Automatic annotation (TrEMBL):
Native source species: Aquibium carbonis
Name listed for the protein in its UniProt record: ABC transporter ATP-binding protein
Lineage of the organism: Bacteria, Pseudomonadati, Pseudomonadota, Alphaproteobacteria, Hyphomicrobiales
GO MF annotations, alphabetized: ABC-type transporter activity; ATP binding; ATP hydrolysis activity
Lineage top rank: taxon: Bacteria
Keyword Glycoprotein: no
């Protein structure tokens, strides 16, 4: 049972504060992914939990006990990095056995532990090879095996598959997930790849410039981003964000993204939910490409637009639509909009619209 807690953690490198009052609780057996741009403080946080980096303020607790003054070796945490760091002169077997030898475990115990983890990672047939005779994916399997063989309290992984090619990354992603389901170790995993984060995490922790932005299950951060940063960091292609000009005309309410074009139809309840924000023009509308609905024919509630660029992706297309001076990206079935320059009609799905305060970037939490 391993439960990790960060309380008010602060870290400076010289005059630069790289972790700003971080509070986070990681439950036993949970797979947490820290996601953010390069330099946002993910690795520093991970290294602080491992004991490879000191912190300036706050507490790091493992199973309720403060560990920030303990050395790395006393924390019983394993770490896997992007660079595989295997011992080149040792075989795979010896690499995996190495951390156990340091504990003084007997030969038979070591043999059983190495073979058991090798079976889980499907590398039994590689045990006699040297690292130089392994593929990138196999090297990373060995590095993971070496980290897990002593059943550490927790597993920390820093972009462990970042150096692999796309196909191998996908395979290893599935492997890491399978392993976690089987072993259930409390895991903190760092990446800047949002697809990796969405597919692996029980909960995603999104960081920006040392500040935690949102913690939540993948579908929660995707469907209910708390601010513009999260909204535009999670999801590919990124969420469309534009000005929101809310107009009330008789019984109808519309939201225009450019003052020169008609607005998109929205239910009347929007006005009440915007709670006075609508009048001052200080709103941003966020809408994901799959919530931009395209029709070839004119229909009530649809706005005429022109297709600007079409990106065919095989399973679907991404179509850039020109709406006045703004571009809306829509996800359409392949070939649905045949040519750039074609006139089409578009509507927004109000149930998937997000509204943000323009100056703070915070979501207004409006759901229709
Ligand atoms: N030892 C150090 N001395 C000084 N500055 C450092 C040190 N380590 C990291 N930094 C700085 O701290 C900030 C956070 O770095 P960190 O490595 O935690 O970010 P990251 O989100 O993990 O980025 P990346 O994905 O590039 O590793 C960066 O601006 C980095 O340059």
């Amino acid at each position: 049972m391993t439960h990790i807690e960060l309380r008010g953690v602060q870290k400076w490198f010289g005059a630069v504060q790289v972790i700003k009052n971080l509070n986070l609780t990681i439950e036993d057996g949970e797979f947490i992914v820290m996601l953010g741009q390069s330099g946002c403080g993910k690795t520093t946080t991970l290294r602080a939990v491992a004991g490879l980096e000191t912190i300036d303020e706050g507490d790091i607790l493992i199973d309720g006990k403060p560990v920030q003054h303990l050395k790395c070796s006393a924390r019983d945490i394993a770490m896997v990095f992007q660079s595989f760091s295997l011992y080149p002169h040792m075989t795979v077997y010896e690499n995996i056995a190495f951390p156990l030898r340091a504990t003084g475990m007997g030969k038979a115990g070591i043999d059983e532990a190495v073979r058991s983890i090798a079976k889980v990672l499907r590398i039994t047939e590689l045990l006699d090879r040297k690292p130089s005779a392994l593929s990138g994916g196999d090297m990373q399997r060995v590095a993971i095996g070496r980290a897990l063989v002593r059943h550490p309290k927790a597993m920390l992984m820093d972009e462990p598959i970042g150096a692999l090619d796309a196909k191998l990354r996908e395979e290893m992603r599935a492997e890491i997930k399978r392993l976690h389901v089987k072993q259930g170790s409390t895991t903190i995993y760092v990446t800047h790849d949002q697809v990796e984060a969405m597919s692996l995490a029980d909960r995603i922790v999104i960081m920006h410039e040392g500040v935690l932005q949102q913690v939540g299950a993948p579908e929660e951060v995707y469907q209910r981003p708390q601010n513009l940063f999260v909204a535009q960091f999670v999801g590919s292609p990124v969420m469309n964000v534009s000005p929101a000009i809310v107009r009330s005309e008789g019984d109808d309410v519309s939201v225009a993204i450019d003052a020169t074009v008609p607005g998109f139809a929205f239910p009347r309840e929007l006005l009440g939910k915007l709670n006075g924000h609508a009048g001052n023009g200080a709103l941003k509308l966020g809408i994901r490409p799959e919530a931009v609905l395209v029709s070839r024919d004119a229909q009530p509630g649809y706005v005429p637009v022109v297709a600007h660029i079409i990106e065919p992706l095989g399973s679907h297309d991404i179509v850039d639509l020109k709406v006045g001076g703004e571009i809306l990206r829509a996800r359409t079935p392949s070939g649905f909009v045949p040519r750039a320059g074609d006139a089409v009609h578009v509507r927004l799905d109000p149930s998937q619209a997000h509204f943000f305060d323009q100056s703070s970037g915070e979501s207004l939490g409006v759901r229709l």
